[in-house]
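Sample pair:
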Amino acid sequence: MGIRFSDEGLKFLRALARHNDREWFGARKEVFERELKAPMLALIDEINHALEGFAPEHIRPPQKAMMRIYRDTRFSADKTPYKTQVSAWWSREGLEKTSGAGFYLSFGVKGLVVAAGSYMPEREQLLAMRRYLAEHGMEFRKVIEGKRLRGLLPEFEGASLTRPPKGFVGLEPEVMEMVMCRQWGLSVTLPVEVGLADGLKGEIVKRFKAAAPMVEMLNAPLVRVGRKAMF
């Protein structure tokens, strides 16, 4: 039997959505630790073993890959203290403290989200990625529009600009479309039942594996050669 989430864990998340306060959570923290945190850490560990075969630079200790349940409310109108899902992010080695491309997973009341890409690149990273895509845009499009990849991760998230960024002119329309993006991600939201089934790891890994070439391309201009960055 593979690692999966439990009905009790899903029940906890549904209740948390209705009672999102510290007193309620504190009284039930043991349930969170047992039914959600523990299986997520175990799932991350299993996925790490699979990453050895196609994205070894993204293997991270489970405690580092798992994201905190506590929300950052400093700049949000929503002051509820807890997220209503458990999630994990596999960044690339050397880019852990920045926003390079990686792999994402979350399990919550709305379903199981599997995603890959670069979602919040810093200013210098964004410029480096755009310069890279200006030269490799058609190759990149071929990767992200592959039939198998888009069958597994059908949603493209680009947050496009309304006009070309400064300094980028004379590009083919198909390339410019990629350069105008502020992020590059593919995702899918699967039914919550997938998170409760024994085949959970397989559903995630096959999508991460399909997205690995895209992730590698996005990180290409960001990786360091020796101690000197490429941008």
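The chain is about 45% helix and 15% strand.
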